User: Which sequence fits this backbone?
């Protein structure tokens, strides 16, 4: 009987140890579960904090952008206005330059026409003087000339009368004149123009009219 009691006591102790061990394991699992839950909660709280932080930063950036938008629009508008004003100034300057050039060309044309008219009047006056001189010095036999021969004779006398350059003659294209009357320097052509007869500047005038040096000023 004593052996049975000892055996029963040993079994009871073994059961108590087993129950105690099971209780400790249960408490350990419960403690780990609580710790894991707390860690998960901390992680969620941390994620929530970062989300709130970045959300606030994004919202602040958007507000800043909204405040700067009118400033950017005003700046772009001002730059566009300045560009348009600069373009308008360039257009006006080009228009004024064009008008000035047209006025200059018109003035040159008028000056050339006036000069040509003056030269023609001088030529006619010189021819008239030669004719008068020819009439006063004509021999008696000249009275029998035909009307067809008179202009040719007067032209020949006019050419023979030129022994030097006409000091009153001027031309906008004319430069230096050779002393022997053989040529006149042409400014637009940058070369010497030969005369058919010595000191006969009419060949030079015909050259300029043919080439078209209209309104040229040295």
Assistant:
């Amino acid at each position: 009987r004593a052996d049975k009691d000892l055996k029963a006591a040993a079994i009871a102790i073994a059961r108590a140890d087993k129950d105690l061990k099971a209780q400790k394991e249960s408490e350990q699992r419960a403690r780990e579960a609580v710790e894991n839950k707390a860690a998960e909660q901390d992680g969620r709280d941390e994620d929530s904090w970062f989300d709130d932080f970045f959300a606030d930063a994004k919202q602040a950036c958007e507000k800043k952008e909204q405040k700067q938008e009118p400033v950017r629009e005003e700046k772009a508008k001002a730059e566009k206005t300045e560009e348009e004003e600069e373009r308008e100034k360039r257009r006006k300057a080009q228009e004024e330059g064009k008008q000035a050039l047209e006025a200059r060309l018109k003035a040159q044309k008028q000056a050339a026409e006036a000069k040509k008219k003056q030269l023609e009047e001088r030529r006619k006056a010189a021819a008239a003087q030669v004719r008068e001189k020819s009439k006063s010095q004509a021999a008696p036999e000249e009275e029998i000339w035909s009307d067809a021969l008179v202009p040719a004779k007067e032209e020949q006398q006019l050419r023979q009368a030129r022994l030097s350059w006409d000091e009153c003659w001027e031309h906008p294209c004319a430069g230096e004149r050779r002393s022997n009357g053989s040529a006149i320097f042409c400014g637009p052509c940058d070369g010497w123009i030969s005369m058919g007869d010595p000191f006969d500047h009419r060949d030079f005038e015909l050259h300029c009219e043919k080439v078209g040096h209209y309104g040229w000023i040295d």
